[in-house]
Write a structure and sequence with these properties.
Elements lengths: L1 E2 L2 E2 L1 E4 L2 E4 L2 H5 L12 E4 L5 H9 L4 E4 L8 E2 L2 H12 L5 E4 L2 H13 L3 H9 L2 E4 L2 H8 L14 H9 L7 E5 L6 H9 L3 E5 L2 E2 L6 H12 L5 E4 L2 H13 L3 H8 L4 E4 L2 H5 L16 H13 L2
Parallel strand pairs: 5-6, 5-13, 8-9, 8-10, 10-11, 13-14
Antiparallel strand pairs: 1-2, 3-4, 7-12
């Protein structure tokens, strides 16, 4: 496994983990709070930053990206047809889920000469944004945002809508990497017309074997902690566990003595169907995540 093209792995016993340069160059480990701890990191983006913070505390790392480093863009012709349908008539509700997706969509619409019309439709609807990034992307286009959940979870956006009468409402939903067909079906069952704009899809890991090795470590209770920085990463690893017949053992292990840490509530919420205890830092930042894991492991 490499980080940004640089080889960074060594073997501890039968386990291959990312090697800390500090461990190679400094034989004095006194005071290293995570000395002897093995931490699984599932992030694809910004993995180096997280790994190095753990390594500076003496930890060994098993890096197994749960997702591809590069999201797969949806077919441009499909998105253009969807955009034409969106701007064809006014919408009642406009749901934004990611800043990256909104920016990509509006930039594509600009290139097709539909940017102004897309802004007009969004501005004329009641706008719900999942979090500050999607809200900021819309505000940058001059579109006000009427409501956003404090949790930044799409499940709360859906719950907010389901408390209302949606009969005959036209809803535009921007997809955020994973399919939102299930959410759309829930809204349609309540009488709404739903148009999904798929901007990009998050792909599975580029190295399934690496993720498979991480699953073995979790099931074997060899990890001390496992970190997540996105909900799609949670979905990916749970899907991998299920497909390989290890879901039950994997869930049991995560409910046991492994610290499962998520950078924010969106990723943490993805674990809710399995009732897995998760810790989340007060500040949704990588540094805070690392310090939180350190704090929990120091107590054990």
């Amino acid at each position: 496994m490499t980080l940004n093209g640089e080889s960074s792995c060594r073997t501890l016993g039968s386990r291959e983990v990312t090697a800390s340069p500090l461990r190679q160059n400094d034989s004095s480990t006194a005071g290293w709070s995570l000395e002897g701890r093995l931490i699984g990191v599932t992030a694809a983006r910004k993995a180096r930053e997280q790994i190095e913070m753990f390594q500076r505390r003496g930890a060994d790392i098993m890096w197994a990206p749960a997702l591809s480093l590069v999201p797969s863009m949806i077919d441009e012709r499909e998105l253009r047809r969807t955009t034409q349908a969106v701007v064809g008539r006014p919408a009642d509700l406009f749901l934004a889920t990611t800043g990256t997706g909104i920016n990509s969509w509006f930039e594509s619409a600009d290139s097709w000469g539909l940017g102004h019309d897309l802004v007009r439709v969004a501005a004329g609807a009641e706008v719900l944004a999942r979090g500050p990034k999607s809200a900021g992307a819309l505000v940058g286009r001059g579109v006000r945002v009427d409501w956003s959940p404090r949790s930044e979870c799409f499940a709360d956006v859906l719950a907010h809508l389901c408390r209302r009468d949606l009969s005959g409402k036209r809803i535009i939903m921007q997809e955020h990497g994973l399919s939102q067909d299930r959410a759309a079906q829930v809204l349609r069952e309540r009488g709404a017309e739903v148009i999904i704009a798929s901007i990009y899809r998050v792909e599975g890991p580029e190295s399934p074997a690496r993720l498979d090795e991480l699953l073995d470590l979790v099931v074997g209770h060899a990890l001390d902690a496992l970190t997540f920085t996105s909900a799609p990463a949670v979905a990916s690893i749970m899907r991998a566990a299920a497909l390989t017949g290890r879901e039950s053992a994997f869930v049991d292990a995560l409910r046991g003595d492994i610290v499962v840490a998520c950078v924010g509530p969106v990723a943490a919420d993805a674990f809710s169907p399995w009732s897995i205890p998760v810790v989340v830092p007060r500040r949704y930042r990588l540094g805070a995540l690392v310090k939180l894991v350190e704090s929990y492991l120091k107590q054990r």
